[in-house]
Amino acid sequence: MGPCLRRNDVSGYLAFLVNICYALSVLNPGRHFMEISVIIPVYNEEKNIRPLCDEISEVLGKYGRSYEVIFINDGSTDNTLQELTGIKQSAPHLKIIDLNRNFGQTPAIMAGFDMAGGDIVITMDGDMQNDPRDIPALIEKLDSGFDLVSGWRRKRKDAFLRRVVPSRLANWLISVTLKVPLHDYGCTLKAYKRDVIKNLRLYGEMHRFIPAIACWKGARITELEVNHRPRQYGKTGYGLNRTIKVLLDLLLIAFLSEYSTKPIRFFGGMGIISGSLGFLSFLLVVYMKLVKHTDMSGNPLLILCVLFFLVSVQLISMGFLGEINIRTYYESQNKTIYHIRDIL
Ligand code: UDP
Ligand code: MG
């Protein structure tokens, strides 16, 4: 007797086909078949491009997973772009994004995220200070169930006083403020599962804060010790002034983490404190008038009282404006204030 297909078998078959199609990304043509995307922002790194590409090919070429390497040329003024295009002729894994001008490391990394097709995304510096040989260990950590693995340059090879000390202080401050303890937020060598960076928007110098942002959204994060090497060619694009930028970004991100969906609690809270101080000053002015017969109009406390009241009204109004703003932000784009990991 030949094989016969009952109705249930047919629908089972159809479901199977649909699943296959989905897996082949036919239903999602923007998506490529790619396992690993390595994202490297470069600014004036002409001498590092070739050796870095060689190192990456050596590691990932024999790793057995499909990969792409995306270089983002961040407005270099040397021969970085020429080096990249020269290598591209013989390197099918290479993609080059050439930005209009120098935007900075965070926008360059964002451009890479937007272009990456891999299920696993790795970011690293283009100055050869990070070691591509660490990539397999980072991926193994992801495979063991983590969503984000952050590199830790335990033996950092940078100037001790100018770079290492400020960085240790900054890492301590960031860990304490954001309540996500990591030893090395500044290490660009990190590995992400695609979901972590999906819909992520970064501004300023914020690429270093991705682990904290991801952690607040419920991602499982960890860190892994990685190799760090001294810079051989080119020079760092940063100095001490980056510390101030990072501090300001930290302030902003600490505010956003706590109050981005409830700004009235921040501004309203400060408004209430200011209003209470105004009321106390008022009581003091009245007490001084009635008991000590101090002239009210000549009492500077009265001016302080008016100032506190005005500031209080301003702050609470800002809180209301903030509340209207976040409603516009979430409702106009159908964004939710929660994040679902899975629906079972
Ligand atoms: N970089 C960039 N845009 C910039 C500055 C730096 O894309 O405006 C790149 C740079 O080429 C390197 C990475 O960001 O690949 C890290 O920069 P750098 O080595 O200067 O920073 P450091 O390692 O000293 O913190
Ligand atoms: Mg560097």
Task: Specify the overall morphology.
Answer: elongated
Named at the architecture level, the CATH assignment of the largest domain is Alpha-Beta Complex
Overall helicity? 40-55%
Strand order of the largest sheet: 3-2-1-4-6-5-7
Top CATH class of the largest domain: Alpha Beta
Mean pLDDT metric: 91
- Total strands: the figure is 7
Number of domains: 2
Ends apart, CA distance between termini? 41 Å
As for the CATH topology of the largest domain, it is Spore Coat Polysaccharide Biosynthesis Protein SpsA, Chain A
Oligomerization state: single chain
Uncertain ranges: 1-5
Calculate Rg over CA atoms: 27 Å
Number of helical regions: 11
